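Worked example 2:
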Amino acid sequence: MTTSLASLAEFRNLLRSMPECDAEAMEEARAHNGILTKPPGALGRLEDLAVWYRGWRGGPRAEITSPQIIVFAGNHGVAARGVSAFPAEVTAQMVANFQHGGAAINQIARVNGATLDVVPLALDKPTQDFTVAPAMTDAELLDALCAGWDAVNSDADLLVVGEMGIANTTSAAALASALLGGGSGFWTGRGTGVDDAGLLLKTKVVDEGVALHADHGDGLETLRRLGGRELAAMAGAMARARQLRIPVILDGFICCAAALCLVRTAPGALDHCVAGHLSAESGHLRLLGAMDKEPLLELNLRLGEGSGAGLAIGILKAALACHAGMATFAEAGVSDA
């Protein structure tokens, strides 16, 4: 296929030369926040979110009118090891459900005024079982990164990326363990709901993969060896959003594992991202801590699909509505002393 990125080397170089936030816009936003009709800091993190968003989008009264959610889907060769409570066929079945509007993320996108795009990635060709070989070739990784890169709408003003892929919590646990240490038991959770025997097997599989592939390169190379197409596509979309100065809300454990690969390739690569929620997957809190991201919501979700981040769109919209719509002390005739 014709790719929008010529090589992995080009992608690495782009990651290391991405635009920064607009410090002048952030300072203006802080000054405006300081004269709104409320006690200093009374809106807590909503104030910080508005300042952060304006730093990436600029403008005197930034608002979210065109949020985009993209769900990427891929199949994993390691699923054949029995690490999931569901068979690999469910990936394609859920893609059809997304396309017909029947999934949770369809409803969450609708109520938050977001467009929803679904991108299946070679579902008939699972990645390699990472316990015996790298999950992807260089060319396969590049194709998946490009699929994510090209899926981002340049007119969007906020991005959420989600995923669907049986066995992808196994892949995410392996990525976290390889890049952050701590052992497979530290990162491996029940995913789709495996029983104790299934969790033991899943942990063993993560151990095998990490033993084979750890310490072989940066975050991008680790993604090639232990990741999946949908994780790589999420990483590509997040990087494209940074190039376009589009803020990103991170979803759960799998999305954050993909994001970790970016920041372990280029420090600062996630400055345009906030964490949408804390999922019920056991390693997610530790992963957020490693990336210095504080979640906006904690609702005990473990669905994926971009669901938690999609819900957080409403939080960010409210932050900006307050920032732009509240009267100043002078406008309201209220004393600030």
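The beta strands are 67-73, 115-120, 158-164, 248-250, 273-275, 277-278, 297-298. The radius of gyration is 20 Å.
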